[in-house]
Amino acid sequence: MQLTLVTIPISHFCEKARWALDLAHLSYVEHGSLPLVHWTKTRPLGGRSAPLLVTPEGVLTDSTDILRWVDRRHAIYPIDAAERSEALALEDHFDRVLGPHARRIGYAYVLPHERVALQIVGQRTASWQVRLARPIFPILAAILMRALKITPAGVERSLTVVREVFAEVDRRLSDGRVYLVGDRFSAADLTFAALSGPLLVPPEHPIQWPPEAAWPTDLRTLRAELVATRAGQHVLRMYREHRVAPIPGRSG
């Protein structure tokens, strides 16, 4: 049975799962959908959100569960018990704190720019979905903004939280360590980098953004701020050194 990964391709939680599968060189078919439309694929499989991974042992509906499943086939958590516990704690912290706030900022900055938004979120999805989305994009954008509580005050709160998380990672890296936990790349690094992806836009990310000149000004400004930190440089280095390129032909 071939693995099937259901995604919202631009989603940073989906990128977290996709990166783990690629790192382990596991063969899978990715079924990507636009936000909201993804329910048509997840609900019949017993889930609601993406990523969702269909495996011979059952369906996994959470990115952390997917990483733990991958870990049994290719180690992405430290073997040392104390380091493994630390990596799991960091992963959980990034999932709960960084993930939702980075998502809110990313959508807040991109949704007002319809052409750029469709160019980004439409990648690795069926072309009919993009055709369907174009005439109703303002409605879809309004639903997303309401669901993600995208308001000026909400975005400001999210910016504060993201800066705090980056400051925490800066302090952790201030002793010169190469990785967040132990002496090798782990789920902690993968999670931090993947969840920061929409704000840092690493060149190695599977979703290709338009030229930087076309980016929303707020995103360009925030990226420059974050790239100037140790944490931001760590994200870019993790992508550069550890983001295994997906094997062509695995999207569907």
Provide a concise account of the structure shown.
The chain has 252 residues and is α+β, with helices and mostly antiparallel strands. It has helices at 12-23, 39-42, 63-71, 81-110, 114-121, 127-147, 152-173, 187-200, 217-227, 230-242; strands at 3-7, 28-32, 52-55, 58-60.
Task: Give a description of the structure.
With 252 residues, the protein is an alpha+beta fold. It has 2 domains: 3-71, Glutaredoxin, CATH 3.40.30.10; 81-242, Up-down Bundle (Glutathione S-transferase Yfyf (Class Pi), Chain A, domain 2). The protein has 10 helices and 4 strands, in the order βαβαββαααααααα. Strands 2-1-3-4 form a 4-stranded mixed sheet. β1 (3-7), α1 and β2 (28-32) form a beta-alpha-beta unit.
Task: Describe the secondary-structure layout.
Elements: E1 3-7, H1 12-23, E2 28-32, H2 39-42, E3 52-55, E4 58-60, H3 63-71, H4 81-110, H5 114-121, H6 127-147, H7 152-173, H8 187-200, H9 217-227, H10 230-242
Helix pairs in contact: 1-3, 1-8, 4-7, 4-8, 8-10
